[in-house]
Amino acid sequence: MRKLREGLLASSRTDTFAQRAYVFTIRSALLCSSYESYSPALSHLLHRIHPLTPLPAPELHEFVGYCILDLACRLGDFGTAYQVRRGYRYRDEQVESVLKALVHDDWVAYWRLRGNVDGYQRRLMEWAEDGMRKHALK
To answer: Can you give the pTM of this predicted structure?
Structure first.
């Protein structure tokens, strides 16, 4: 998949094929917890491909949610996560609840939310588990 992504990037393609290839790459990399693959692909999809070949509204909502969760869970950058949420006018009760649990260090709420999100979001949430667990045990 990396070779495909590199080829698309080198050819500067922003058409529907490139969009679908990036969507597939991001989803499969998320399930493998490979941030080295999904992070640059997600950024390229949202900032380069989407402005020229718009994603359908449900997919845009999905990938903006992944971006927000990645910023909050993996990077611990809550300010940028809230900025992205505001910039895309993103509203999702589950993602907002995860952000709230992370900001307030609420392990119980965080753990309960794991059952309410889809598999991709759960994989992103796994990045914050160790920190949340350690903080809860202090």
So the answer is: 0.91
